[in-house]
Amino acid sequence: MKLKIRNLVSPLYNKVWHTPKGRLAAKIKKACDDLPRNQRLMVVTILLSAFILATFFAFGNACYKMGAGHARQSIEIEHIRQLELPTKTMSHETD
Fold it and tell me: First and final CA of the chain: distance in angstroms?
C-alpha cells in the first residue's frame, strides 16, 4: 500500500518541486558565474550585511519588548470555590 502511494506521489513531487528547484538553482548558479569576482564579493557582502541587520533588529525588538513588559502575559489568579455536592437522601430511615 505504501509503495503504491509513493509511486503516485513521486511524479507529482518531481513536477511541482524537484524540477523547478533544479532549474532555479541552475539559473542562479549561471548568474553568479557570469559576475566578475569583485562584483560577486560585493553582492555577497551586501546580502550578508542585510541579513545581519535584520537579525539584530529582530533580536533588539524582542529584548525591548521583554524589558518594557509587553511580552509578559498577565495571569489572573482565580481561587478555587467550594463545590456544592448533592446530598444523599435516604429513601427509608432507620430507627
Answer: 73
